TrEMBL record:
PROSITE patterns (UniProt xref): ACETATE_KINASE_1 (PS01075)
HAMAP family for this protein: Acetate_kinase
Binding positions (ATP): K14, H212, L213, G214, N215, G216, D286, M287, R288, G335, I336, G337, E338, N339
Protein name stated in the entry: Acetate kinase
Organism: Desulfovibrio fairfieldensis
Binding of substrate, residues: R95
Active site: D152
Family from the record: Belongs to the acetokinase family.
UniProt keywords, alphabetically: ATP-binding, Cytoplasm, Kinase, Magnesium, Metal-binding, Nucleotide-binding, Transferase
Cellular localization per UniProt: Cytoplasm
Length: 403
């Protein structure tokens, strides 16, 4: 049973085709510069086949339709394809950023669902239009194949009101639905399930803290297997310092800078989302570059690293107390979380008083799969669990369809 997972952006489209009987990835790819000059499709086939592993096609993609038509052609190519016909695809799962409070679970797409996604453009102006476009393209090119929307905010919708409400006039929540939603939901949900499996613990008894650290970063506090708190808020801007996002700041900074620098709301949003974070502090977004600059004595890079670690530890501490100190595991995941031993070591440094003891040798080694990087006598295990948002979307898709 094959499921195609689609993550459509405004000028790009990521995809992955999975054989769900074995949860094996058959192929994946990325179409870039859709609607722009110099369109490019990078298509990767599972390495355990005898087919060419990586295929790159340069082509014009006026819209997402042309990009997906080329994807279908590669999927079904007589020599390079991994399926004989697109009719082999049982269902299509879509990553959708926002369903607001109207949709809190993965759902089979129909006209009502599409209308809600459209209504939530106010909350997700960059992502929801593209996500909806991806659904409509799939409906056109795969007639009769069910489409399932899996929302990035779903996991965060399990938070209690005291976690998701802001101390603003209540009518702003009633009128505009201003509240904390949380993002990276498919990743946090997947990691919660895999953490419970790793520990041999029922999911509904799990109490853990997940650190999804990448160019975009967020943390979740998991209680009884559900999201009890999360670092991102109304938008993915709140919370940790990130590659280009400032994270949580004094809100009075925004009107102050707008007035002093004569910025429009859109320009202020761009400043905080795309010109801040590690980039704004030291000029680099890739942690490998930041570490290299630190080694060269770049003081701003060292400051950026220290600030990043501090933002993670502050959130970690607050979640530790929200769970009454009863934590089953600390979990690192995503690009930085899975690969950056320096950040992991810095985050865990000084936590020995809480019984958390990192195995520095194990932490410095790169290995595939889920594993512990804490010492055997650590009261709270520290884990690395690779995330797999596409698999989670595919699993949710089959669940919605009763398979």
């Amino acid at each position: 049973m094959k499921v195609l997972v689609i993550n459509a952006g405004s000028s790009s489209c990521k995809y992955q085709l999975l054989e769900m009987d074995t949860q094996r990835v058959l192929c994946s790819g990325l179409a870039e510069r859709i609607g722009q000059d110099g369109g490019r499709l990078t298509h990767k086939i599972a390495p355990d086949t005898d087919k060419e592993n990586k295929i790159v096609r340069e082509a014009a993609f006026p819209t997402h339709v042309e990009a997906m038509e080329l994807v279908i052609a590669l999927l079904t190519d007589p020599e390079l394809g991994v399926i004989k016909d697109k009719g082999e695809i049982f269902a299509i799962g879509h990553r959708v950023l926002h369903g607001g409070e109207a949709i809190t679970d993965p759902v089979l797409v129909d006209s009502r669902v599409k209308e809600i996604i459209k209504e939530c453009i106010l909350l997700g102006p960059l992502h929801n239009p593209a996500n909806l476009m991806g659904i409509e393209v799939a409906e056109k090119l795969f007639p009769g194949v069910p489409n399932v929307a899996v929302f990035d905010t779903e996991f965060g919708m399990g938070m209690p009101p005291e976690a998701y409400m802001y101390a603003l006039p209540y009518e702003l929540y009633e009128d505009l639905k201003i509240r904390r939603y949380g993002f990276h939901g498919t990743s946090h949900k997947y990691i919660a399930r895999k953490t419970a499996e790793y520990l041999g613990k029922p999911l509904n008894e799990l109490r853990s803290i997940t650190m999804h650290l990448g160019n975009g970063s967020s943390m979740s506090c998991v209680k009884d297997g559900k999201c009890f708190d999360t670092s991102m808020g109304l938008t993915p801007l709140e919370g940790l310092i990130m590659g280009t996002r400032c994270g949580s700041i004094d809100p009075a900074i925004v009107p102050f800078v707008m007035e002093k620098k004569s910025l429009s709301p859109a320009e202020a949003d761009t400043l905080m989302n795309k010109k801040s974070g590690l980039l704004g502090l030291c000029g680099y977004t890739d942690m490998r570059d930041v570490h290299s600059q630190v080694e060269k004595g770049n003081e701003r890079a060292a400051l950026a690293l220290q600030m990043l670690v501090r933002s993670i530890k502050k959130t970690l501490g607050s979640y530790f107390f929200l769970l009454d100190g009863k934590v089953d595991a600390l979990v690192f995941t995503a690009g930085i979380g899975e690969n950056d031993d320096i950040v992991r070591a810095a985050v865990c440094d000084g936590l020995e008083g809480f019984g958390i003891k990192l195995d520095l040798k194990e932490n410095a080694i790169r290995k595939p799969g889920a594993r512990a990087i804490s010492l055997p006598d650590s009261k709270i295990p520290v884990l690395i669990i690779p995330t797999n948002e596409e698999l989670q979307i595919a699993l949710e898709t089959l669940k919605v369809l009763g398979k």
